[in-house]
């Protein structure tokens, strides 16, 4: 299904073809503090419509995930990286999708133990 989303101030906007059937919550030091509920999609199914020049990046641990956030409002609405098979992927924060209630999606979430990495 196609979803539109972005940051709080509207500077960053995108659309993504993704399923909300298998959301993930992670307890790593970043995701837990952000309260992220994530869904993953191939990079080819994600289009950044505006705000690429307004994104800043944060990396930690093994420096393999590009945590991108809006320079204006600070919201991290998506990240980029590679899936275990090496293909490019995008992790979209369900909290930032228009018209989606993340509390409903979060009740189905798989908990990932990011602290163990």
Write a structural description.
Belongs to the Gfa family. It contains two helices and ten strands, in the order βββαββββββαβ. The chain is globular and about 35 Å long. The chain has a single domain, classed as Metal Binding Protein, Guanine Nucleotide Exchange Factor, Chain A. The protein has a five-stranded antiparallel beta sheet with strand order 4-9-8-7-6, with no helix packed on it. A three-stranded antiparallel beta sheet has the order 1-2-5, with no helix packed on it. Strands 3-10 form a two-stranded parallel sheet. A hairpin with a 7-residue loop joins β6 and β7. It is mainly beta. The longest helix is centred in the C-terminal third of the chain and has 5 residues. The termini are far apart.
State the low-pLDDT regions, or none: none
Helix-and-strand structural type? mainly beta
Mean pLDDT: 88
CATH topology: Metal Binding Protein, Guanine Nucleotide Exchange Factor, Chain A
Number of domain modules: 1
The level 1 CATH classification is Mainly Beta
Coarse morphology: globular
What is the correct CATH architecture?
Beta Complex
The share of residues in extended strands comes to 35-45%
Rg from Cα: 13 Å
Placed side by side, the strands forming the largest sheet appear as 4-9-8-7-6
Number of helices: 2
Query: What series of H and E elements makes up the topology?
Result: EEEHEEEEEEHE
Number of strands: 10
Outline the biggest β-sheet: 5 strands, antiparallel
Q: Can you give the helix content as a percent range?
A: under 10%
* N→C terminal distance: 31 Å
InterPro entries: CENP-V-like, CENP-V/GFA, Mss4-like_sf
Keywords: Metal-binding, Zinc
Protein name: GFA family protein
Organism: Gemmobacter lutimaris
């Amino acid at each position: 299904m196609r979803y539109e989303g972005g940051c709080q101030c509207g500077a960053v906007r995108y659309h993504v073809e993704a399923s909300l059937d298998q959301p993930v919550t992670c307890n790593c030091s970043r995701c837990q503090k952000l309260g992220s509920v994530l869904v993953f999609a191939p990079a080819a199914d994600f289009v950044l419509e505006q705000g690429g020049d307004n994104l800043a990046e944060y990396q930690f641990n093994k420096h393999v995930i590009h945590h991108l956030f809006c320079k204006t409002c600070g919201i991290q609405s998506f990240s980029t990286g590679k899936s275990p098979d090496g293909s490019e992927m995008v992790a979209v924060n369900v909290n930032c999708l228009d018209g989606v209630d993340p509390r409903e999606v979060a009740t189905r979430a798989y908990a990932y133990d990011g602290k163990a990495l």
